[in-house]
Amino acid sequence: MLPTPFKYALIATTIIGCAPAIAAAHDGVHLSGFGNVSVIHSGTKDFGYIYDLTKEGVFDTWSLKTGSSIGLQMNTSLTDNLDAVIQGVVQDRINNDLNKSITWAFLRYKASPDLTIRVGRIATPLYMLSEYRDVGFAYLWTKPITDFYSNIPVTTLDGGDIAYTIPFMDGMLETRFYAGQSEVAIDNVTNTTDVTLSPLFGTRLTYYVDRWTFSGSAATVKNKKGEPAAQLSALFSQDPSIFTAWPSLQSTLNDFQFVDTRLYYYSLGAHYETGDWNVQSELSYSDAEWPFFPDLAAGYISVGRTFDSSTVYGFASKAKSVGDLYTVEAPPAISLLAPQIASAYQTLKGVVSARAINQETLGFGVRYDINTQLSLKGQIERTWLLDSKFGAWSYSLEGINAPVPDHIDTISISLSFVF
């Protein structure tokens, strides 16, 4: 089997070589593509860097597969008002398969100059990078800012949306409504589980004026299928006597059920761009009913200054669990005298508390545009783990009790391109 870097190179060469011939052979067909060749060093031996929730952690090593990808998009014009779009992205993922590689597949109908309807698989319009999160060439950084984007599990939506645009004051206001379902993989320390989120629905407002873009979104989703904590529950159920010594355990395990719980997500964003300056900021808040997803507030601000073909940038970001964290009810004091019960209690308590997040990041980087389709970027960032909270990092069951470092540095270099 070919190593991952050679697979990406082979796929990229094949796509780039075939795309012009395919497009030339069919009127109304437009092929385009994009890619990132990225190397990242981060993490420690106990705590792995998480690019996003679809990928495995990077534990104190250099990784070429975590941030690298290659994508191809085909737009086909069917009538004057109807077109079809399909996009595939090859990248490393947890529980990877062909279905996850198809990121877009929709029909788009332009009912009027102001009204557009899409049906199929679309990018979930939750945040400012929704339409181009995988297109590294489209943003300053080597990768989406981790504190904000790594904890967003929903990237695609099987359903549709409707967008209506009207003039408003000195700009244009777009109102978008969307609904459908999404399938994602959730890593819960002991295992990774594919879950179905349905129904998912929400709205997004975007206002364009001069060099500014402002956006706000709100969404809610119900968890329909999949139990990420099932293996953890099964671990305790191997010894039925534990429930006698710990009467509240069954109630606690019932609280860990994922199906029929709900998640609410809200975000605000602003972007300002001139030929010399690039400023972007986003804030988000997620409210989850599941104990393993504590409510989370996150945000960042990024500022870049362009000099000829180079852009120097810096950013600051933060993510923090807010509200009351789930409390595991302790066994009776006499039961805790038994080593087995005490160990089970500490394990369960540790798994829940380990999901809490409180960290801040400061990063700097340089982007050099080699030409209009190719850019080289380098970035260094330091993340401070506050109050020993490490829920934004990957870890093993054994690593829950490992000493938490004061900070972790991340270095990344990427070559991003479009064609």
Overview of this protein structure:
With 419 residues, the protein is α+β, with helices and mostly antiparallel strands. The protein has a single domain, classed as Porin, CATH 2.40.160. It has 7 helices and 17 strands. It has helices at 4-25, 98-101, 146-149, 230-237, 241-245, 249-255, 339-353; strands spanning 29-42, 61-63, 69-77, 82-91, 102-110, 115-123, 156-168, 171-187, 192-209, 212-225, 262-273, 277-288, 296-307, 310-321, 358-371, 374-385, 407-418. A 16-stranded antiparallel beta barrel has the order 1-3-4-5-6-7-8-9-10-11-12-13-14-15-16-17. A hairpin with a 4-residue loop joins strand 8 (171-187) and strand 9. The longest helix has 22 residues, at 4-25. The protein is globular, with a radius of gyration of 23 Å.
Query: What's the multimeric state?
Result: single chain
Write out the CATH superfamily name. Answer: Porin
- DSSP, total strands: 17
What sort of overall outline do the alpha carbons produce when their principal axes are compared? globular
Number of helices: 7
Main beta-sheet strand count, sense and barrel state:
16 strands, antiparallel, barrel
Gap between N and C termini: 28 Å
Helix content: 10-25%
Mean pLDDT figure: 91
Low-pLDDT runs of 5+ residues are 1-17
CATH second-level architecture = Beta Barrel
The gist of it:
Helix content is 16%, strand content 48%. With 419 residues, it is of the alpha+beta class. The radius of gyration is 23 Å and the shape is globular.
List the helices and strands and how they pair.
Elements: H1 4-25, E1 29-42, E2 61-63, E3 69-77, E4 82-91, H2 98-101, E5 102-110, E6 115-123, H3 146-149, E7 156-168, E8 171-187, E9 192-209, E10 212-225, H4 230-237, H5 241-245, H6 249-255, E11 262-273, E12 277-288, E13 296-307, E14 310-321, H7 339-353, E15 358-371, E16 374-385, E17 407-418
Antiparallel strand pairs: 1-2, 1-3, 1-17, 3-4, 4-5, 5-6, 6-7, 7-8, 8-9, 9-10, 10-11, 11-12, 12-13, 13-14, 14-15, 15-16, 16-17
